[in-house]
Design brief:
501 residues, Immunoglobulin-like, 5-stranded mixed β-sheet, 42 strands, 4% helix, elongated
């Protein structure tokens, strides 16, 4: 094989979010210049980048190319060893050479902890407060998490639904925590206790997360307080019944308050004592008892005014909706465009394959057909040697293209009727006979030093020292070849048995 590839090292270590590089040494051992493409197989294409993915090599020339590895710092970048294959592929004849290495993703840990609600309330009628503790493993390794809670005054008792949980990378679990004071008097002033919830990794004790919570303890109220509250409520009720009811605008918001041109936002409101709601500019008039929201689509940044009215007067509130220009989509990229076989016989089909990014539409010429960018390939039957062009277009109309040449050859008129080795298995030092029968051939050759032989029928005795595969190539009148192979398997010679003295 004319192209050879080897690696500067057999192992690459990298931590998610960081980067590492591997040096590939590619050599052209042929006697013709070649165009070589460098590829990485076995891992996600987003994890690696090749600054110079293809390059030219003169005969005997050797180059060193960098391969960069940048796995993202996320739970998807699981810690472990990934076998990878570095392939150097000739763009001239389709031949390739591979080298193997290992990509080691280093482990990292990251825990987050949330508590809901932040404050719980207990009383003689409700002696326990319940909290939801949410633990998330944002690292790339499995974690066994130990949970515990404590307060500095040791005045609270805690009870866990589960004190220990197992989390896969990227997994989130919610555990119920129950808390109550160790003492619960009936008549007492309200008291507020603070406590800390801790989640600690069993595998990595130095990795932990903390969250603060509170527990409010309340006692029963006294009869004097009850009488006072009753009288106060009575006075408030009389005042509320007899007082004028002015308009109140409780809420007037835009959700979302910032949009991209062409998008819509929802105006929501909540009013009290209003008989009519008007939204300007040019939105409309609404019944506050039936409608509490409306969608709008401003073309530019707009200040909306809500006017609520009743017989006592009116109130006004404003909200600003910011309209931003739509961001320009990223340019389309054709990362790969290749054929399963760059050379086919006339009448056969070729499978064209590609990999593209940021494209919403593909056009393949010929046949001038539009394709879905998610389509992995396209089958076409060229009638002659054809240069294909793949055009990728993004949503903004920007295009990029790549070409690919597929050669169409006529099949050879020569036919190999028979090419065998008899016997096909021999012992070391023995001979075998190659026999052949060929039709419509102008010239016939056999490799491994035999050379040109009879173009119709014949035989040739060989004595290989090891297992050898012989290739017979027949050429028709136009020089088009056809081949057949025959293998002679050589068994090691059996050493003679030594006699007894």
């Amino acid at each position: 094989m004319a192209i050879r590839v080897r690696l500067g090292q057999d192992e690459v270590q990298v931590e998610p979010g960081g980067s590492a590089q591997l040096m590939a040494i590619v050599r052209n051992e042929g006697d013709q210049p070649d165009q070589v493409a460098l590829e990485v197989e076995g891992i996600d294409a987003e994890w690696c980048a090749i600054p110079i993915p293809s390059f030219a090599l003169a005969p005997g020339e050797e180059v060193q190319e960098r391969i960069l590895f940048r796995p993202p710092r996320s739970a998807e970048s699981r810690a472990g060893t990934y076998p990878i294959v570095i392939r150097a592929r000739s763009l001239e004849n389709g031949g390739s050479s591979v080298a193997q290495a290992s990509l080691i993703i280093r482990p990292y840990s990251m825990l987050t902890l949330e508590l809901a609600p932040k404050r719980g309330v207990v009383s003689p009628l409700r002696k326990q407060a319940h909290y939801e503790v949410t633990i998330s493993n944002l690292g790339n390794t499995e974690q066994t998490i130990h949970l515990y809670a404590s307060d500095p005054e040791d005045a609270l008792a805690f009870e866990w639904e589960h004190e220990q949980v197992y989390l896969a990378p990227g997994e989130t679990r919610t555990v119920v925590l129950s808390s109550q004071p160790r003492q619960m008097p009936f008549l007492t002033n309200p008291a507020l206790y603070s406590f800390t919830v801790t989640a600690r990794s069993v595998e990595d004790p130095l990795r932990s997360s903390h969250v603060q919570g509170q527990l409010e303890r309340r006692g029963l109220i006294s009869p004097a307080t009850v009488v006072f509250l009753f009288m106060l409520a009575l006075l408030v009720a009389v005042w509320a019944y007899t007082r004028p009811r002015p308009v109140e605008i409780q809420v007037f918001v835009a959700e979302p308050a910032q949009i991209t041109a062409g998008e819509k936002t929802t105006l929501r409101w909540s009013v009290r004592n209003a008989e009519q709601v008007v939204i300007e500019p040019a939105v409309g008039e609404f019944d506050p008892n039936k409608t509490r929201s409306v969608q709008v689509q401003p073309t530019s940044t707009t200040t909306y005014r809500l006017i609520a009215r009743n017989r006592y007067g009116e109130r006004m509130a404003e909200v600003v909706v910011i309209v931003q220009n739509a961001p320009e989509p990223p340019p389309p990229i054709i990362t790969k465009f290749f054929a399963d076989s760059p050379q086919v016989k006339r009448g056969e089909s070729v499978i064209l394959r590609w990999e593209v990014k940021n494209a919403t539409e593909l056009i393949l010429v010929p046949p001038g057909q539009k394709l879905d960018p998610l389509t992995p390939g396209f089958e076409h039957r060229p009638s002659r040697t054809t240069t294909y062009e793949l055009i990728a277009r993004n949503s903004a109309g920007k295009t990029v293209s790549k070409t690919l040449r597929v050669e169409v050859i006529d099949p050879s008129q020569a036919q190999i009727i028979r090419f065998v080795a008899e016997p096909s298995e021999i012992a070391a030092g023995e001979s075998a006979t190659l026999r052949w029968e060929v039709q419509n051939a102008r010239r016939v050759e056999i490799d491994n030093g035999i050379g040109e032989v009879s173009p119709t029928t014949g035989e040739f005795t060989v004595t290989p020292s090891s297992t050898t595969t012989y290739t017979l190539t027949a050429y028709d009148q136009d020089g088009r070849p056809v081949q057949a192979k025959a293998t002679v398997t050589v068994r090691p010679a059996t050493p003679p048995l030594s006699g007894n003295p």
